[in-house]
Amino acid sequence: MTDQFLALGASAAIILVILSGFLFFLAALISMLRSPLTGGMVLVWIIFAFCAPFLGPVLWFLIGRRNARSYPAHH
């Protein structure tokens, strides 16, 4: 019985990690699309995020988003 609870807990933890990663990726994509960057730079970031699904969003939030704030808003 304890093994079943342990397996259930491990499964729930794995699902939570996968769901969190997906939501983090989705939040990064939304942030990229709403940024004031030009279309070309947004496309580069989106392609990078899809090529490196964990590293791309992390770098976006650490570097790209901060740099995007210095760009003038597009009309």
What is the total tally of β strands? 0
Principal-axis shape: rod-shaped
Give the helix/strand class: mainly alpha
Straight-line distance between termini: 61 Å
- Please trace the helix and strand order, writing H or E for each element: HHH
Biggest pleated-sheet summary: none
What percent of residues adopt helix (DSSP H or I)? Answer: over 70%
What is the radius of gyration? 17 Å
What is the averaged pLDDT score? 90
**Beta content:** under 5%
**Low-pLDDT segments, ≥5 res:** none
How many H/I helical runs?
Answer: 3
Helices and strands in order:
Layout: H1 2-34, H2 39-51, H3 55-68
Helix pairs in contact: 1-2, 1-3, 2-3
Characterization of this structure:
With 75 residues, this protein is mainly α. 80% of the residues lie in helices and 0% in strands. The chain has helices spanning 2-34, 39-51, 55-68. The longest helix has 33 residues, at 2-34. The radius of gyration is 17 Å and the shape is rod-shaped.
Compact overview of the structure:
This protein is an all-alpha fold.
What keywords describe this structure?
single chain; mainly alpha; 75 residues
